[in-house]
Design goal:
2 domains; 5-stranded mixed β-sheet; 233 residues
């Protein structure tokens, strides 16, 4: 009787473990990775390190923190197992950045929605998710200040270009890349840049028949909502 009871208990335990394994397998099978494409890859192979950097475009519409992390881990596992390098068997440094638009990837302003990285001395990779860029995915396009969403994005792009223009003109008059510059030189450069930026943004306001304060508000909106920076000259 005792042996029968033990046999019965073992049979139940075996059934439970089998079900657990099957459920775990089913969960893995049903986990779908986000659709993506590789925008560009950089390999830096020297005696000190073998580094791979990837920029990835997420092509799915349903994005959340968990499936971004799953994608990054998947890409990391694929990358860390790569071989055939001159100085190291496998990559020692890995940086993978995931973007939601090509414009954000090209901006060069760190507008990734998620990234995974591992340095030479690190045993495990670290993952970071940008709440700003994640929230930007679900931004609702509304009219504000008598401007459409498209108009405000046009203004945002022009603000960035005018800022660059102002800095270039200030640098031309008061260059900061020469030997012997003083604090006074830096101050003159900064003051001229701010003055030119103010002037150009007032002209921008006139172009759209709005107050200068609206231009400032659009600039803040672009930063807060994670709008893509325009391609810099």
């Amino acid at each position: 009787m005792r042996q029968l009871k033990l046999t019965f208990i073992f049979a139940i335990l075996s059934l439970i473990l089998t079900n657990c394994r099957n459920n775990s397998t089913n969960r893995k099978e049903t986990t779908q990775l986000l659709k993506y494409s590789i925008l560009n890859e950089d390999i830096y192979d020297i005696p000190l390190k073998t580094q791979i950097s990837l920029n990835v475009l997420i092509e799915d519409s349903t994005i959340n923190k968990e499936n971004i992390k799953d994608l990054l881990k998947h890409l990391y596992d694929k990358t860390t197992s790569r071989s055939g390098f001159k100085y190291h068997n496998n990559p020692t440094n890995i940086f993978i950045y995931a973007f939601t638009t090509t414009d954000k990837a090209k901006s060069g302003m760190g507008q990734w929605v998620g990234m995974i990285s591992k340095g030479y001395s690190e045993n495990l990779p670290s993952i970071n998710i940008s709440d700003l860029q994640l929230n930007a995915i679900n931004e609702i396009e509304v009219n504000k200040w008598n401007l459409t969403y498209i108009q405000r994005q046009e203004i945002w792009s022009k603000i960035i270009h005018l800022e660059d223009k102002s800095q270039l003109e200030a640098d031309k008059k008061y260059p900061l890349d020469q030997a012997g510059i003083t604090f006074k030189d830096i101050k003159k450069n900064s003051e001229l840049m701010k003055s030119l930026k103010e002037k150009y943004e007032k002209e921008l306001a006139k172009e759209y028949y709005i107050e200068k304060v609206i231009v400032d508000s659009v600039g803040l909106e672009g930063i807060v909502n994670g709008w893509a920076f325009p391609k810099r000259n």
